[in-house]
Amino acid sequence: KIRDILAREILDSRGNPTVEAEVILKCGARGVASVPSGASTGAFEAVELRDGESRYMGMGVRGAVKAVRQIIAPGLKGMDASRQREIDQWMIAEDATANKSHLGANAILAVSLAVAKAAANGMKLPLYRYLGGCGARELPIPMMNVINGGRHADSSMNIQEFMIMPVGFMSFHERLEAGTRVFHTLKRILMAEHYTTSVGDEGGFAPAFERDEQALDFLIRAIEEAGYQPGRHFRIALDVAATEMYDAALREGKDGMYYFWKSGIYKTPEEMIAYLKELCDRYPIYSIEDGLAEEDWMHWEQLNRTLGSRVQLVGDDLFVTNTERIRKGIRQNAANAVLIKVNQIGTLTETLDAIRMTKENGWRAIISHRSGETEDTTIADLAVAVNAGQIKTGAPSRTDRVAKYNRLLRIEEEIW
Ligand code: PGA
Ligand code: ZN
């Protein structure tokens, strides 16, 4: 039974405020959780409440903290913390908006996750076991974003994320070691060619390349020089974050096009698809996320017809972890995988529903961080709980990213 719920304003990895909630049960067990925050957010995401005004450049979350203290805490007191669905539904009903803009998705999610952690602690279970039961057993393949572009770095490439996937290894610790070896090798190569090796929001390097393909060439070189075979030990994943390109074109009055600002080129959706296909022909690409914009449903279908049989096509901004949009995507055959971000939808229950729908339809679910993160490691447990098989949580650099990898190392030790 919930005795009390506390909330406070803390900082995320970008130095912006975020909400932390602490749920205390009558038995004395506690659960603490904090909320991540995106930079290239989808238009259909649940809304994080920000104070505006002068504190923290308008980014303060005292309003969301107040919502937890004055509305959510009194409402949930006395409820059984293991009744996650009822608790989440109570918050959804109390908020009473489609995008959680009344109480704030940041207020609701902090409590939702802290409730689950408190319940797990109350039962003396690790979170992945509490959420996934005995079936939770698969450690994910990390998608490590080692070159950061787009909105996550000011260099900046058109494509937002260039990721390496250590696919040719049996255990998580071997995947992490191999990925980290490539990361360090990449740094050495970049330094040798006088590129900057400062890192972006997700811990990857942010060199001032002229063309996006250069990033791919450097990845291949780093994989080889680290002693691995591209295609066998490692494959590549991209997050194009094409909604950003679509919006950039729109701002220039070119509706329905994609703007590659670095090269000053506009592409039609058909040219985008041809370009992505060409990249897949030239490089060992396993996965492409948001290859097209969140509004461009019609061309997603065309992209899926062109590449879906050989490449994982992931909807992030397209689906925003929302079952209504995922259902539409499945009906239209628009992709074959869904990026899962807890704060896009705002409760744990709805997140688990989104994962279930995705998997039941034979699509893949990838558990993901945001570009703004905290030391909270819930997504590591979630990835194992649902046997997602893949997790996106940045480069092996910056403690906000590494915390998730370290949590997975500990889980692996417990499970195996
Ligand atoms: P965001 O980006 O967290 O800044 O939204 C991550 C992504 O697009 O996958
Ligand atoms: Zn994305």
TrEMBL record:
Domain Enolase C-terminal TIM barrel as annotated: residue spans: 136-415
Name listed for the protein in its UniProt record: Enolase
Similarity-based family: Belongs to the enolase family.
Enolase N-terminal domain residues: 2-131
Active-site residues, as the UniProt record annotates them: E202, K341
UniProt keyword list: Cytoplasm, Glycolysis, Lyase, Magnesium, Metal-binding, Secreted
Domain of life: Bacteria
Cross-referenced PANTHER family: ENOLASE
E.C. code: 4.2.1.11
InterPro entries: Enolase, Enolase-like_C_sf, Enolase-like_N, Enolase_C, Enolase_CS, Enolase_N
Binding site for (2R)-2-phosphoglycerate: Q160, K341, R370, S371, K392
Listed Gene3D superfamilies: Enolase-like C-terminal domain, Enolase-like, N-terminal domain
Taxonomic lineage: Bacteria, Bacillati, Bacillota, Clostridia, Lachnospirales
Species this protein is from: Jutongia huaianensis
Residues that hold Mg(2+) according to the record: D239, E289, D316
Nucleus found in the keyword field: no
Cofactor(s) required for function per UniProt: Mg(2+)
CC cofactor note: Binds a second Mg(2+) ion via substrate during catalysis.
Annotated localization: Cytoplasm; Secreted; Cell surface
